[in-house]
Every structure is written in C-alpha cells, then in structure tokens.
Amino acid sequence: MILVLSRKDDLAVNLVLPELAKRGVEALWWDPGDYPAESRIISRLVDGAWRHTLVTGGAEYDCSVFSAVWNRRPSRPRAADVVEDATHRGYVEKLARIYLNGWEDTFDTRWFPARSIDVIRTQNKLLNLTAAARLGFTVPETTVTNDPETLVEAWTEAEGRLIAKEVEFVEFGIDGAGHNFYTTPVSRRHLTSRHRLAHAPAILQPYVDKAVELRITVVGDRVFTAELHSQGSRATRHDYRHYEGNFSQYAVHDLPEDVERRCVDLVGSLGLAFGCIDVILTPEGEYVYLEVNPNGQWGWIEEFTDLPISEAIADWLVAGEVPA
Amino acid sequence: MTGFPETLAEAVELLRGLPRRREGVRAARESVAAWRAVRPGSRAQLVVDVRPGSPVVDYDLILDHPDGGAVALTAPAEDGVPWTVEHSTHWAASKVLAVDGQELSVQTALLTLRALAGRDRTVHDDLIDHCVLTLASWEEPDPSPEELQRASDDFRRRRGLHSRADMLRWLEEVGLTSAAYDNHLYSLARMRGFRTRTEAESAEAYFEEHAAEFDRVSAVWAVGPEPPLAELAGHDDPFAAIAGAVARPVGEIVVHVADRVAAEVPAPLREAGEGDAVGPVPYRDGFLFGAVRRRRLASPDPDTLAAAGRAAFSAFLADRRAKAKVEWYWL
To answer: Is the peptide bond before A36 cis (omega within 30 degrees of 0)?
Structure first.
C-alpha cells in the first residue's frame, strides 16, 4: 500500500492514483494538515524501534503496511477549531510539526522524493547550485547577498545585464494583496534603491541568453525533458512562470547523454528520488543549470508534451511492493 | 536669496516625503508645484514612473543647474521595505479575471476582444464567455484539419490578413509565434465545435419550449433620432412612410428590411401583430420605428431550427454567466 501525503485539492495526485490502480496497488491519500485536528497517530517504542499507527477517516493503519510514501504537497498541521486561543493554536501546530518531523524520520520506508526536512534542505539554491557545479554542470556566476554596494558592483560586472531572483519563494503582500518577485532584469532604477537589499538577500546572476528553457523531470533514474519556447512571448521571456497554455510552446527535448546522466546523478546525490531541474539551452548550444526543485510541478508538462511522468512516478512507488 | 545647495537639500527632502502609491501621485504633483512656486528658479518638474503590476511609483525631480544644464534627483527613503518586495509585482499582474478558477491573461483578453466584439454585449460579457467556453469545451474532441482551417480562415478574414506577409507582420505586432497562433486557433476551433454541437443538440427542444419566439416575421424598421422617426409615425401607412424616407431622406436614419424568426428581430417588434406599427420607442442608443408586414406561425424548418439553436446557446451562456463565480482582478 502507498501513503500519499498531500492536500486534497492536489491535481497531481489525481494523475497518479489511476496509475497505481492499474498496477493493482492500493493507496491512502492523507493530508498531514488534518493532524491533529481530525487524525490521530500513535507511536510506540518497541524493542528500540518506533511502531506508528495512523488513525484517519474512521480507519486504523499500521504504518508498516506502507511500502512507500509519496511526500507531495502536504498542508501544515492544523489545530482543531475548538482550540480558539491564538497562542494555544500556535503551540499545538508547532508541536505537531515537530512531532511529524520525528514521525517522518522514524517511519522506515521508501520516501518519494524524500522526507520533508530533506526536501526543504535540498531545494535551497545555495546547496543545489554547488552540487550541480561539482557534477560539472555549467552554472551562472552567482552572488547571493544583502550587501547594497554589491548590487551595483554585480550590475557593473554584468555590463548591465544582471538578473535578480529570490533565494526561495516566500509569500508576502503589499497593501494587503499578494505579490511575487519573479526573475527580474535589474535596471538602473533598481539600483537607486540599493539600500533596501540590506533587509533581505537576493540572488544575482548575469543574464543568460536563451534559445529554449528546459524543464527536466527526473523520476528515479528516468529523465523526461520538455523544452519551453519562452522567448516567443514577451510574457515569459524572463520568467516562464508567467506562462499561459496558448502562448507557450512546448516540445519534448532530446537531452545529450552526458547531461542526462548528470541530471540523474544530481538528484541522486541530493538524496532525492525526484527532481524538476530548470536548465537554459543557450543559442550557442550550452546547457546552463539554474536550479532543482525537489517537489516541483510536472502535471502541466505531462499535459502539454504527453511525457509519461505520472506512469514513472507510479512505477517508482510500487517498486517496493511485495507481490501478492 | 537661497543658494543651489539649499535648493538641492530641500528637493531631496521633498522627494523623500512624497507618497509612493498610485493614488498619491496627484498629491505628489501638488507638493512639487507648491515648492516650485517658492523656488521658481529651479524650474522643478516631477517625473512619475508608474510601474506595471505594482501599486508603487517612483519619482525623479528634474531641476535647472544655475550654471546651465539639468540635475535629476531620485531619493528613495529608508522605509524598511526589502528590495525584492519593493520590486515585486502583484500576483495577478498579468491576468484580467478568473471565472470558476479559469484565469484569463491580458494577452488572450486582447485577442478575445477583437474576436468577439458584438453590438449588444459588453466587453465584460465577452471575456466571461471566453472563460465559460474554455471550461465547457475542455472535453470537446480535437478539431479536424478542416475545422482548424475554417477557424484560421475566419480569424484572418475578420482582421484583413489576406497574405502571408500580412499574417507575419500581424504576428510580430501582437508578439505571437506561429506555434502560439496555432494553439490559439486550436482553442477557437474547439469552442466553435462545442457551440455547433450544443446548438444542434438543443435546437428542437428549445424550439418546442419557445415556439412563439420563432414565428416568421417579415418587418421593416428604421433606427435613428426621435424627431424624423416621429414624423414617419405620423403617416397612416407605416410601410409607405419608411419607403418614402428612403426615397426622400428625412434625416439620418438606418432602414432595415428583414424576414426572420421573431427572436432575431428588434425586441420592440417581436410580439407585434401583422400590420401593427411600433414606435418611436427607445432602442439601443437611439429610437426605433417599425411595422410588421407579415407574421407566420413558427414551423421547425431548417432555418428556424438553426435560429432556435443559436437562441439555446445564448441562453446556455447567460445561465452559466449568472451562476459562475467571477473575480475581476482590476475592476
């Protein structure tokens, strides 16, 4: 049996569940956001090992029945509605997070892509950029800083062709409305407010010219590469997250063998079973690594390219099942 | 007399105190105008840099230097806002609206406006319909090559894109690759397929339920300002009066002669009996005067069923619009 940890509106789960069913394997879809409000877990230390029992939806599951856990997009733990005091809610939810980290750590099975703490650790761009560089990927000359003067220096060194990125996506708002900091070409106007950089670090890289952008999805040792022709649209030219179906062209890309092998090695070396790697193919034919997202979205790639990613995920998940 | 260093220092303080939101720009201009009145020699001008997709604005102040030339000042203050937050964009900056979660980008909206522009509709209805149809046609089978070609021909004809050169120039103008254009056509063709199928499947039932709307009505009517229409209405024979207006114009009016189902003649004439004259009555942005020459009971012939299908589809869209959860991001 497979345990899927994800929130209930996660469309990607709906792509994989039918594939698991086709393979005759049952799955339990549980959102840790239901803990502790609507689910219970009993952990017993027996002969030096933990035995976990998950109680949810009126059923009880000995966690040893799960041959793999797909750690997709779980919600944060949530206190029951009846816990009204804000400090009590904070207390409950923090304890729940700490407990669930321990539960994951001592839950001995195959984790896809990895346990939460490892997902968070490896999606840090500082960590995965060095891992990629060590494996021989071409990576942009990168500066991560909150030093205001370095901003102007980096812009000068890049001859005015500098881009800035967030260290990681974090939610914030302006005047009550959500805002995003997309990959942004740094203009002279941006330099005039250099003092603001002191308040939070940013990633600075020379602009890398693109022929196409590649989204490389690694599942175990299988690699699915889609090319996104982001340069045809003004909306996606600098950051393809502005994509829209009709205006973005996708195709399957044939990755050179050495780059493909390096992608598998990168994901493996980070201790992951899955990763979405963003790479730029320059007009000169060079593959430039940008980042790996250990739990990136892939449903849209499958939809536009028919690459069988959900099948590969299902294959990985059921590989530990003992035949009946 | 104030020296230039003092003027500069004052200008910097002025800039640092200006409101940095779009709604504060008027107040900022007033502040600068008031300061310039005190320092006329500066010939100060405020330049407002309105960022797309952000409520934040930037300012520059241009001053004359006493020895000739200009000085441009910008002076963002320390307000504790991180650099990445300051230079962020609203999460919906590239979107116009969402209908039941189906979002519409600015780029698609612009194309849609040209594709759907109709007379009795608001732009807003057209954009909502685009989202409704995108959702509704999702399960439609892939369009055939003939359907795609027809969608392309219609699209190009409506825009006067008759040659390959015209087409390439237009693609460049709107920032589309030919592959993106094909994707757009694919969506249009699928929507058209959905529409054709819905009309065909619902025509008979709609006709049976609303037979009176499909009486065959032969009518003439004139549309224009009220005075010339009132003059026509003063005649005993409305048909002769309208015919006379064509021969001897009584002002700027538009005359229509039609033989259609009742649902597709102007609303004031839909229920009029044979020989009845109507108007002048308010109609669209003017007035209407007209008369029904002949009215025959509805029969389910192919033309009438086609009209019933169109009406059924309009009713479907109106129903979906009424029930949909619509979120306009910028209205």
So the answer is: yes
Q: Considering only the beta carbons, identify the residue of B78, B89, B107 that sits closest to A179.
A: B89
- The CATH architecture one would assign to domain A141-206 is 2-Layer Sandwich (3.30)
Residues of chain A with pLDDT under 50: none
Distance from CA of B301 to the nearest CA of A (A): 39
How buried is A12 (Cβ within 10 angstroms: 0-12 exposed, 13-18 middle, 19+ buried)? buried
Encoded amino acid at B103, one letter: E
Interatomic CA distance for residues B239 and A120, integer angstroms: 80
Residues of chain A with CATH 3.30.470.20: 209-318
Place of tokens 């006067």: B160
What totals of helices (H) and strands (E) does chain B contain, helices first?
11, 11
ipTM of the complex: 0.77
Chain A hits for B81, Cβ within 8 Å: 196, 199
B17-60 residue pLDDT tens: 999 998 899 999 999 999 999 999 999 999 999 887 888 999 99
Q: What is the CA radius of gyration of chain B?
A: 30
Q: For the whole prediction, is pTM greater than 0.95?
A: no
Maximum CA extent, chain A: 67
Per-residue confidence (pLDDT) for residue B114, from 0 to 100: 58
| Alpha helices, DSSP H, located in chain B | 4-16, 25-38, 83-86, 106-116, 123-136, 145-159, 164-174, 178-209, 226-233, 238-247, 302-323
Q: Is A39 helix (H, G, I), strand (E, B) or coil?
A: coil
A226 neighbors A305 (Cβ within 8 angstroms): yes
Buried b or exposed e, range B111-132, using 16+ CB within 10 angstroms: bbeebeeeeeeeeebbbbbbbb
d(C-alpha A282, C-alpha A227), whole Å: 12
The CATH number of A209-318 is: 3.30.470.20
With tokens 């592959």, the residue in question is B179
- Say yes or no: domain A2-112 is CATH 3.40.50: yes
Asked if B90 and A177 come within 8 Å (Cβ–Cβ), the reply is yes
* Residue A96 CA to its chain's centroid (Å): 22
